[in-house]
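As a next step, we paired sequence with structure tokens, yielding the entry below.
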Amino acid sequence: MSSNGHKKELYFTQVPQRVVSLVPSLTESLFELGFGKSVAAITDYCVHPAEALKHLPRIGGPRTPRLADILALQPDLVIADQDENTREAVEALEAENVPVWVTQPCTVREAMDILWKMVELFRDPKASARLQTLEVTLNWLADAEQSSFSYFCPLWQEADESPWWITFNEFTYMHDLLRLMGGRNVFAQRRRRYPLEADLGRAEAQPAAGRDTRYPRVPLAEVCAAQPEVILLPDEPFAFDAQQQAQLASWLAETPAVRNGRLIHFDGSLITWHGTRLARALRDLPQLLAVS
């Protein structure tokens, strides 16, 4: 996918030898699939696998990459993500004839397809066998009988006149992954409205005009009205500390989740990182989310 939203196929006659990864989850995936020797540079936020990344040059944050440093490396591929990187950076690299692969999985299936494309690109049968094992696990989970539960999962918290949170709807990887675990997102149908005052129910909404509507901002009253049975508190991108968790529980005291002690603080990368981390998510989330 190119930065302007049109499908753009990249063709390679040889395996890429100098890859710059602007996506932390896909940096991890490159190494876990055995392609780490081709990685030439990474972002400041690429942290896994820690030992393997120590020697690699870093080129800034995902949204603030140093383009001159990337160009100096003469990469034959840059891996980016539409949600994590900026269109301006991608287009600047493409203008210099740098091949850029822009991902944006909105479902688990699309995330798996990215991994399969990676295996195809690097032509490694061992990695292909690993992905096939992951496919079997996914198929088993899809066919398994799951306990159903409704949930609210805030990704960010703000408090001006009253608290509000950023969450996600049905058009996201996170929603689809939690759906596989039996989760029913109480804001699955909720679209982000513009401007912020409209999203919080304080003003009339303007046309979205092509802007992203997958991450609505929901006020306290709307969350209380949704009555989630479980509240999921990932530790990224917003790290809910103990005091913030207690405050949230106080605000949402009239929800079944709080009344039944079902606030779950957990490793947010299990739902926010697409790539090979999916294997950990399939291993850890079912037990974490088990609703008695």
